[in-house]
Amino acid sequence: MHARDHYAKSKTTFSFEFFPPKTEKAAQTLFENIRELDELKPSFVSVTYGAGGTTRSITQDLVARIRTEIGFSVMPHLTCVCHTEAEIYDILERYAATGISNILCLGGDPPRDKPGYDRSRDAFLRAADLVRFVRKFSDKEGGRSISDPRGFGVGVAGFPEGHPGTPNRLQEMDYLKMKVDEGADFIITQLFFDNHDFYDFRDRCELAGIDVPIVAGIMPISSATGMRRMGDLAAGARFPASLLRAVQRATDGFGIDTPEGKEAVKRVGIHWATEQCRDLLDHDVRGLHFYTLNKSTATREIYANLGVRDSVMLAQKP
Fold this sequence. Notes:
Layout: H1 3-9, E1 13-18, H2 24-37, E2 44-47, H3 56-70, E3 74-79, H4 85-98, E4 102-106, H5 127-139, E5 153-158, H6 169-181, E6 186-191, H7 195-207, E7 214-218, H8 224-233, H9 241-251, H10 259-282, E8 287-291, H11 297-306, H12 311-316
Parallel strand pairs: 1-2, 1-8, 2-3, 3-4, 4-5, 5-6, 6-7, 7-8
Helix pairs in contact: 5-6, 9-10, 10-11
């Protein structure tokens, strides 16, 4: 289903994100977790994408398998880094032939295995350039093989706490507006832990004339070590003092690395994410996008805590 139809059909969309597994065993585990999430009836799922060729083909194979074997509406990520126009065109043709309807266009991070990589050699320097190219592809006859006359639905990233590469918050909003003006249909935000950051971001988008759906990115904390990794992956991620106090209370007497401490932190993370989602739903968020880390437990427990069975029930709740 095209992104525009998702947002026209549902008051709120619910989606999950996965990353490509590196081993056959991990792939099997991932598919077992994806099947467990099937009962939640997500609006769509997304699949991440490595820079410099690290997981490109794996991503494409996983996208095709999820689409054909499980039947989810799948949105693959696509990044600017280390790409020529011809390479992007070939990828889009494959997705179109597979029946993929939506693409998430990202700037992407420099490849870790290529230190000092010169981004000036890339065909696309900003996500807005990639959005423009996907729109151009969709206008061609090849793009229409997606089976939708509108071509691909296009999503882009937003950063409630600020883009780490753009300290100037006014310029950051200009760049986001540029992506929307080039044809983005919706925005999925980076993870955040304080809903006030999201609401302020949403208000600033409105002031900038950005009127596409804005989807909130949610990542439940699963461990104290995971919190530190989040800080590395989502540069600038802010952990509110009240969240840190809750983690500290939960691990007092256990220690963060003991089985009891790890389970306590996991419970705090699920509770915190549940309250985030409840508050976001109360404030008419257009979508919730769960960064699952390829696991199903936390997402399923959040649904249960919200008192619902599946995304359709959530989306239709008055």
